[in-house]
């Protein structure tokens, strides 16, 4: 399989190189060179020995995207789940969390915004004034550690410059959606520049509560960012980023009849109020190396709540509340209030030529949970320290060897109001070994082997259920072990001689050791979720992404992903054998094509098609999301300093599930185990006006 994928990669690249000669007659401008910060340095995406995708402001505008999940379908082998007001749980190559309820968790996919670690706080991924979103596939074990075993999403907002600039964005759409954003930047002195941005967005959402006669999955999101950059001396640069986020969204996603019409009398919330900062300093005054320091801090209060029975209980509304008035009905409401506190400090010593880096990292995270009006409380305190390093060895003019290593120590303490106290400590090792060969200045091939890891933890909900509700849960389910992931890649990246076609092809094979899987123990209408370890998992596949400037007027963007996954040695506590089954959230194929056509000099029409195969919702049952094929489009008119874009997503109005369960919740059918799904966005469209000075 690997040899076939490698041969395909080389064949595609050869075709790309030969194509350039046939295209010399075309006069279109070459494609833009995209830079990313991958292996601890700023470099072209085409020279990075990793599979990565970059999404910029043009793509965000054409898709009408205000939040991360509205971009992800355009990338290969990336999926997401909701179970909340937003699709804030991301999976890369089938690796990633799908939800969070009682237990503290470590994300499998990390998320940075301006260098601040927002992993596990996906509501932070608002896109206004974001310059670039970079998605790295596979373990980022040297650079980022345990939070990025499956990959990393890096959002960077616009940096302050000496130039005075102003950005205004106003938009409106169906479902009474609106947005308004303002960003401005300028030089304060000859050596100091600042930028701030303010943004607010709202929508009625896509759920109508027939009992309460109002939308109950509405969205109200506010964001403020401030950035400061100062060249204090010739050798010392200081940067500051400050964020404030206020998200007050409703959550009412599931119904007994699997529609968007709820009858819940206690709809929930999905909120986040957070303040965060990152302060960094770069000193270049030494002859041998540069010193980089960064400190970050974050405080966030979140609420996740929902009506457990999804019904009303009003005798005056007998038809609407039929399930809630059934003699066997139950009434339930669940809420999870969390107080998050994080702080980190990192120091790096970097070679002047970018050939080596060594560093040390320390972080502390504290999460306090209060559930069901404080009847249950837990406290999870984690500290970790790491040392890491990476070396680039130039074997010859065309060949580089990259070696990286990270050793990380985690110490955690879990306590709760049930009297449980669990201390765990893990020392884990990750890293990267890569060989890069620059065939010609515009073509690189690479092969790499990387290792990522994810810490173990405690299953507080399983402990509580076993103690209070008499659930038959084995002692082995009270905690779970760390997971390791080995990732082998072969990649080809190139650009045609006329710079009108860029192409990246990656073949990968991943092996997951002690794979962490979520499963559920069900007893009547009560259930408990917990994480356990399977023997291992296997994931392999292919990613193809590219951009082709066909004529002066027409540009084609495309991505294709193939993913084959398998669970090995996993039997649930209820006795179901999932050995050999595909992993959850891992569609076998994904595709995205979009064409930008300049009808006139200032008028651009974009048409996009995207889709994915069916996939399992969970690793503990066999319900699947259906395959999906979506149509997106936009029309943009560009003035000298302004633009107006009419955009639409899911124009065929397909019902796309973004979360699914197989549980008992309807008394009218004797609490028979059934499939229940939450739908993502239906057909949405709007108009966005932007002004840039």
TrEMBL record:
Chief location bin: membrane
Residues of the TonB-dependent receptor plug domain: 45-151
Entry annotated with the keyword Membrane: yes
Position of the signal peptide: 1-20
GO BP annotation list: iron ion transport
Pfam family, one: Plug
Record GO cellular component, one term: cell outer membrane
Domain TonB-dependent receptor-like beta-barrel: 163-651
Subcellular location: Cell outer membrane
Keywords assigned by UniProt, alphabetized: Cell outer membrane, Ion transport, Iron, Iron transport, Membrane, Receptor, Signal, TonB box, Transmembrane, Transmembrane beta strand, Transport
Record has Ion transport as a keyword: yes
InterPro entries xref list: Beta-barrel_TonB (IPR000531), Beta-barrel_TonB_sf (IPR036942), Plug_dom (IPR012910), TonB-dep_rcpt-like (IPR039426)
Protein's membrane topology: Multi-pass membrane protein
Similarity field: Belongs to the TonB-dependent receptor family.
Protein name as it appears in the record: TonB-dependent receptor
